Each structure stands twice: as C-alpha cells, then as structure tokens.
Amino acid sequence: MIVTLVLPEEISAELTQAANAHVESAGVLLARYMETPNGDVRLLARGMHWVPDDSYLVRNATALSIASHGYVPALAAAEADNSVPIWLHTHPGAGSSPRPSEYDRIVDEDLADLFRLRSGSPVYGSVIVSREGQSVCFTGHIESVSCRNDIDRLWVAGRRFAFAQNWSQDATPISEQFDRNIRAFGGEIQRVLSTLRIAVVGCGGTGSAVVEQLVRLGVRHIRLFDPDTLTASNVTRVYGSCPEDIGKPKVDVSAAHVSRIAPDTEVIPIQSTITLNSTAKLLLEADIVFGCTDDNAGRLVLSRIASYLLTPVIDCGVLLSSRCGGEIAGIYGRVTVLAPGAACLVCRNRIDLRQAAVEMLPRDEHQRLAAEGYAPSLPGIEPAVVAFTTQVAATAVSELLERLIHYGPEPAPTEILLRTHDREVSTNDQHSRSGHYCHPDSGKLGLGLTEPFLEQTWQG
C-alpha cells in the first residue's frame, strides 16, 4: 500500500514557513482519507489548525510542550469534516532532520487514542516537517488500532507542483540514459518524473503525443484512457501506430508503443470513457491528469477532479477552421492548467454544458430526443493535423516541467492560447466564481469520495 499526502499550495506554504522558523511549531492537519481502486491511500489535506501561541507551555528550537486546549478543538473540527486528524510538528532550521525522536514516539502513543476518540476517525496520523533547501522534507505515518503504514509521498498540487518522498526511505535511482535531462533540470526533477503517477485521457493525436513525450522524459507510471479503436485516418497522427494497428483499441496501441520505448514502464490501458462512473474512479490514483479528449462531458469530469480530488489537470484543445475548398483559416491551441482553487473549465466557459448533457445520455436516448427535436446533434469529425496536435501536446508537457522546475514568471498563468496561423502565443489567468465548486469558499476542495462521485450524475 502506497500512502500519499496531497497538499494544496496554501497549506504547503504554511508548512514551509513553519519549517523556516527558529522554534518548533505544531498543529493538526485535517485530511480526507481516500482509498483508491488498487488499495493505495491518498490523504487530501483540507485545513491546518495551528496550536495558538498561548497554548505552548514550552517552545524552543528543539522541544515542545502543549496544553491540551491547544489541539482538542481541532479534533472537533476533524469530526465535523469527517477528516483524519494528523498531528504535525516541525524540526526547524537549516540542516534539521525530520527523523522522529524517542520523545516524538512517546507523544504519538499518548495522542493516538485521544485523537481517534475525539475525532471519530479510525485513523490517526503523524507528520514531522523539516527544511530542505527552499522546500521541505518529512517523515510520517498513519495508524489504526490494527495496523500502521508510512506516509510514503508528499505531493503539493497548486500553481506550482512539488514532490517529496518520505525522508526515511531510499531515493529512487536514476538511469544514465537521462543524462541530457539531468544536465537541463537536475537529478531531483528526474527522480520526481519517474515517481509521478500520470493519467492521459484520450489517446488520439494530442494524447498519443503527450504519452510519447512523457515516457521519453522518464515518466514510468502511466494510465491511458480512451474508448475508441484506431481508424485509418488516425494513423496520420497517433504516435506509435501503423496501418497494421487499424481496428485495435487506441489505448493498446499507445501502451505497446510505450513498452517498446521503456519496457520498465508501468503502463495500464483502459478502453473506456471517463463519463462512466466506474472508469472515472480509476483516476483516483493519478497525481496529474492530462486531458486530451475532445468531448464536453469528459472535460466536465476532469474539471471537477481538479477540485474534489486535489488532482491537477492539464487540459488540451486544438481547433482548425477552414474555408470552402479546404483552405486553412485558423489554427488554435489551448492548454489550461486546472489547479485546486483555480478557475475550472466551466468558470472559463471552455465547456458547452448543453452539449455535455447530450454526450452524457445513452446513445439510444440521445437519438430518440434528437429525432424529436429535443436534443442537439453531436459534433461531426473535426479536421486535425499532426504538426498542430503535437505542438499543443508539447506545450502541455512543457507546463508540467515548468510547474515542477519553476523557471517561468510569477505568478504562473493558468492558460496558454496558441494562434499558430498568426504565430502568436498569449497567456491568461482567471478567477473562480464565488460559491462555485472550484472556489476555495465552496468547501469542495479535497472533499474526496462523495456519493454520488464528484457530486454529479452519471450514465453508469
């Protein structure tokens, strides 16, 4: 079982600030417990309740003593939020270690039963954070009455991404084949790429180009989603395909291509659409999702995942317009980064909600309503060219790298628009609507598993 603690950017910033202080700090981190279909666990941070200054009995660079009223109210908040209470404290200062001391272990033993009792959670968690360069390192675990597991990974999901592996665990080795990457952005980023779990939704021209670049960059955990089979016209754009693959599932074609490039990659093809409830839940295991689907209903699901699951989504779109006679009038590309708390695709007006509702209907139901004039027709086949789908895919993968490496402007824009016919690139940043599910005041960020899933209706 792999346990990942997912932090929104705001909470991560609080932890970094506390780790940089001159004295120890402590508090209770509230996180939703979410078990994935393969048995892993993701802890989705919902809020950080720091111990008030007047509740510290002893507080210096190496020790803490806290009155119970400094943390008990946070346990009531955990119960009200149906969250796991995680006792978190810092070992501050440059060069400090997050290794738990013997006293830390005694405190955990003393707090575990109380935390579970007062919060109503069967699980207790403990995390120690220290400073490591400009970021943090950590150790931590979760435990129930019957078992205990390390928190293996810490994933910061915001405008900027950050990853840390449990300090007590051995670092993932790096292959020499990535020497040129390492010369560009360093070994630590290369290690992060090999550890990330990435889902790609849509394996057509854009999606297959994203997969091609991810695996060559060193990503080694990939899930592929697409319900369709390869057609003759797909061969002109789908990376790794050839005429002999016509009729095969697109996900299988892409998976086979990945395995030829990097046989050590864990690649899982899923021939299904994420507009199905059971398929969408397979996205629970992803750290990042690339949205390369051209349907509105699929984008509606991805838009909610960024908020409810704290899973960043890098959504791609390509549009070619033509005049009569086949002359290209415009070549447009879009890459939108959906981070927790940022404007979703609905707030950005990037989804046709009426069309999404139609796409969610069973095919026979849609055909009946369309014949009666109650439903619009589904869109036809759009023009596509490999050079332009690849351009957008490269822009999307570049956004992943930029948000890990942090080489771009601050604050990072959340959308890139390409007008290739004009040779123009622009960026923008939009705010979420107050009260909408993507807004921090909605209470939906990190809500995790809900009934129904993502609090939306499903066709199956």
Topology:
Elements lengths: L2 E6 H11 L6 E10 L5 E10 L5 E4 L4 E3 L5 H10 L2 E8 L10 H18 L4 E9 L2 E9 L4 E3 L2 E5 L3 E5 L13 H7 L1 H9 L2 E4 L3 H13 L3 E5 L24 H12 L4 E5 L6 H4 L7 E4 L4 H13 L4 E10 L5 E11 L14 H7 L3 H9 L14 H20 L9 E5 L4 E5 L32
Helix pairs in contact: 4-5, 6-7, 6-12, 9-10
CATH architecture of the largest domain: 3-Layer(aba) Sandwich
Q: How many separate helices?
A: 12
Contiguous uncertain segments of 5+ residues = none
Question: What structural category characterises the helix and strand content?
Answer: alpha/beta
How would you portray this structure in words?
The protein starts with a strand and ends in a 32-residue tail after the last strand. Strands 9-8-7-6-2-3-1-10-11 form a nine-stranded mixed β-sheet. Strands 14-13-12-15-16-17-18-19 form an eight-stranded mixed β-sheet, with helices on both faces. Strand 8 (135-143) and strand 9 (148-150) form a beta hairpin. The chain contains twelve helices and 19 strands. With 460 residues, it is α/β, with parallel strands linked by helices. Helices cover 29% and strands 26% of the residues. The chain has helices at residues 9-19, 72-81, 102-119, 179-185, 187-195, 205-217, 250-261, 277-280, 296-308, 353-359, 363-371, 386-405; strands spanning 3-8, 26-35, 41-50, 56-59, 64-66, 84-91, 124-132, 135-143, 148-150, 153-157, 161-165, 198-201, 221-225, 266-270, 288-291, 313-322, 328-338, 415-419, 424-428. The mean pLDDT is 93.
Quick gist of this model?
The protein has 460 residues and is an alpha/beta fold. It is built from twelve helices and 19 strands. The protein has helices spanning 9-19, 72-81, 102-119, 179-185, 187-195, 205-217, 250-261, 277-280, 296-308, 353-359, 363-371, 386-405; strands spanning 3-8, 26-35, 41-50, 56-59, 64-66, 84-91, 124-132, 135-143, 148-150, 153-157, 161-165, 198-201, 221-225, 266-270, 288-291, 313-322, 328-338, 415-419, 424-428.
